[in-house]
Amino acid sequence: DPGPGNGTAVIARAKPQTRRPNMYRVLLLNDDYTPMEFVVVVLRKYFNKGAEDATRIMLHVHQHGVGECGIFTYEVAETKVTQVMDYARKHQHPLQCIMEKK
Ligand code: TYC
């Protein structure tokens, strides 16, 4: 009589305890109308960039059409996009902010 169980040894391995969350890039898109200074304000206000970094990113978007503001988990990225779009709309600028899976 093998007793409880079926007499087969259980070989178990613990899963790694941490899983990396999906990450999302938040991007600004260029347009012809949003003032450069407004984009710099957005980068400082919502992405915690300093004046130099904000200016560099703004000029990159101006010259290349698109640029990265940061990489965040889904909920944080979505919040940033909503905040930037609401702020641009409030000031009647056509600035577009989007997110994409990394
Ligand atoms: N192209 C705009 C201008 O010449 C400036 C600008 C930069 C607009 C970045 C949007 O995401 C942007 N006033």
UniProtKB/TrEMBL annotation:
Checking InterPro entries in the record gives:
ClpS, ClpS_core, Ribosomal_bL12_C/ClpS-like
Question: How does the annotation summarize its subunit structure?
Answer: Binds to the N-terminal domain of the chaperone ClpA.
Provide the Adaptor protein ClpS core domain boundaries.
20-97
Q: Which Gene3D superfamilies match?
A: 3.30.1390.10
Function of the protein: Involved in the modulation of the specificity of the ClpAP-mediated ATP-dependent protein degradation.
Q: What's a GO biological-process term for it? A: protein catabolic process
Can you say what this protein is called? ATP-dependent Clp protease adapter protein ClpS
Concerning HAMAP family, the annotation shows: ClpS
* Secretion signal span: none
* NCBIfam families (UniProt xref): PRK00033.1-2, PRK00033.1-5
Q: Which UniProt keywords apply?
A: Hydrolase, Protease
Q: Name one Pfam family in it.
A: ClpS
* GO MF term set: peptidase activity
Task: Identify its protein family.
Answer: Belongs to the ClpS family.
